[in-house]
Amino acid sequence: MMETLNASDAKREFGELLIKAQHEPIGINKNGKPVAVVVSAAEYEALEKLKEERLKAAIKEGLDDIEAGKTTEGNSVIDRLKKRVI
């Protein structure tokens, strides 16, 4: 389970928070609700790389579908959506 601090403790113990965040994510709550998570720069870079890889895979999948002819006319998609809503 992730360690969590309230915002005023995080502010008061900011230096310690930065040290802890190098080893594991630290949650920050304000008024009892989660508002942020502090992670190390390395963890952030890894998350961004993962997001980029997933986006590239999704784009490739879409391009492969287009190349394979797995497409639908835009108007027919809109018509089907309208039928679901109405």
Automatic annotation (TrEMBL):
Q: Say which domain of life the source belongs to.
A: Bacteria
- Cited InterPro entries: Antitoxin_Phd/YefM, phD/YefM_antitoxin, YefM-like_sf
- Which one Pfam family would you cite for this protein? PhdYeFM_antitox
> What does this gene product do?
Antitoxin component of a type II toxin-antitoxin (TA) system.
Under PANTHER family, the record lists: ANTITOXIN YAFN-RELATED, ANTITOXIN YEFM
Q: Which family does it belong to?
A: Belongs to the phD/YefM antitoxin family.
Which protein are we looking at? Antitoxin
